[in-house]
Amino acid sequence: xxxxxxxxxxxxxxxxxxxxxxxxxxxxxxxxxxxxxxxxxxxxxxxxxxxxxxxxxxxxxxxxxxxxxxxxxxxxxxxxxxxxxxxxxxxxxxxxxxxxxxxxxxxxxxxxxxxxxxxxxxxxxxxxxxxxxxxxxxxxxxxxxxxxxxxxxxxxxxxxxxxxxxxxxxxxxxxxxxx
Length: 179
Hints:
The chain is of the alpha/beta class. It has seven helices and seven strands.
């Protein structure tokens, strides 16, 4: 085995990325404190051709030096918008017939491994604050919640790790491996 050189990775140009068919997933970040988490989610969104990222509440926006450190330019490729109120974003996406799910540990959540996708639907995923999670009001507005099963003592994952796990799982379930 030989490690591939960057020139061998067949990376898309920014214009190719913007013109590419996107994965029907939208990420909503609500009240994310860590600029590194925000940048990391942008990088995940770029990796899986995510349609858009919404930044809500106290979540910082590009351009930002600290976000750029982990995003590595993904803020230039991935479409994003800032909205102060996450509830308005969720309501607007629901009106557009999008399936909106909070990623949170709640009563009657659906374990990620049991979550079934419909290939003709678009999905919006709400990720919340590093300490308090997804706001209870936002959870009420969502169609449901998805929970990542955890077996250890913490039952808590970093938001950027959670986003990577959930986005990858839905990406695979939506049959997007034909790149």
